[in-house]
Amino acid sequence: MFTEDFDLFFNDFITTVMIDGIEIDVIFSNEFVDAEGIATTAPHLYIETSEVEDLELERKDEVLINESAYSIKSIENDGTGMSVVFLEKKWDR
Q1: Structural domain that includes position 28
Q2: Are 3 and 18 in contact (CB under 8 A)?
Q3: What are the residue ranges in the chain where pLDDT is below 70?
Q4: Are 78 and 4 in contact (CB under 8 A)?
């Protein structure tokens, strides 16, 4: 695993989210995807793996982002010190 300082990368793309009542700096993406002819979005977070472990994140934990609530669908460690947290939208305010 890399031992890089991700702060430089995060500073340009940071979004502060609330996960189980704790504010965390992440990179949030809600890109458009075409899944076999069905247009949708694929909301996900890039977060340091150490934070995933420290927070003991798991499936179905709630994530609040810009007045919208999501639940965690899955967490994938990419082997570089970062993890991708895939989300499912629950509601908007």
Answers
A1: 7-92
A2: no
A3: 1-10
A4: no
